[in-house]
Amino acid sequence: MAAATTLRPLASLALPREGAARLAVQALMVVAGTLLLTLSAKTKVVLGPVDMDLQTLAVPLIAAAFGWRMGLATVLLYLAQGAAGLPVFQSSPEKGIGIAYMLGATGGYLAGFVVIAAMVGWAVDRGWDRNVFKLFAVMLVADVIMMAMGYGWLSTLIGAEKAWQFGVAPFIGGELIKVALASSVVPALWSLVRAK
User: Fold this and answer.
1) Rounded to whole angstroms, what are the CA distances from 128 to 9, 14, 70, 188, 192?
2) At the topology level of CATH, where does 2-195 sit?
3) d(CA 153, CA 40)
4) What is the pLDDT along the chain (196 residues), one digit of tens a residue?
5) Where are the alpha helices (DSSP H) in 84-131?
6) In angstroms, how far is CA 23 from the centroid of its own chain?
7) Strand partners, 45
8) Which of 34, 66, 81, 107 could form a disulfide with 71 if both were Cys (CB 3.0 to 4.6 A apart)?
C-alpha cells in the first residue's frame, strides 16, 4: 500500500479519490494543461523557421506533474485542438492553422512533444520525480529525441545543413537550461509536500 502511494504523480494529491468528481477534476486539469501549452507557445523569441518558446519547459513539467496518462492526454488534446484549427500553436494563425501548420517547420517538434510526455510520464509513474538526477536524465533523453525528430522533419523541408543551423544549434543552451529547471521543480515540490 505504501509503495502505491509513493509512486503517484504530484497532481494526484489534488484529485478526489474516486468517482465522477475524480474524472471531472482530471478533465479540468488536462484542459488547464492545454491552456498552459498554448500560453507557453505564444511566449516566443523569433529566430527564423523555428522560434524559441517555453513549450519545451511546459511539456516535461506537465508530464512530471500529471504522470503518463494525464500528461499524454494533455499533449494529445493540445495537438487535436491545433489540428482542428484552433490557434494554439506558436505561430498560428499568422503562419497557418490546423494540419497545414502541423506539417510545417515545427511539425517534428510537435510530434516530439508526445515522446516527451510519454517518457517523462512513464518515469514519474515509477517514482523518478522524487530524484533530480533521474528526472533530469529522462527529460534530457526525451528532449534530445524531440530535437532529433524536429531536425529530421525540418531537414526534409529546408535541407540538413539549414535545419541544423536554424532548428537545432540556436536551441541547445536553452534546452539544457529548461531541462535542468523542469527536472528540479517537481522534486522540490515533493520535498515541500513531505515536509508538511
Assistant:
1) 10, 19, 17, 13, 16
2) Arp2/3 complex 21 kDa subunit ARPC3 (1.10.1760)
3) 22
4) 344 445 788 888 878 888 899 899 999 999 999 999 999 999 978 777 777 899 999 999 999 999 999 999 999 999 999 999 999 998 899 888 999 999 999 999 999 999 999 999 999 999 999 999 999 999 999 999 999 999 999 999 999 999 999 999 999 999 999 999 999 999 888 888 776 6
5) 98-102, 107-124
6) 22
7) 52
8) 66
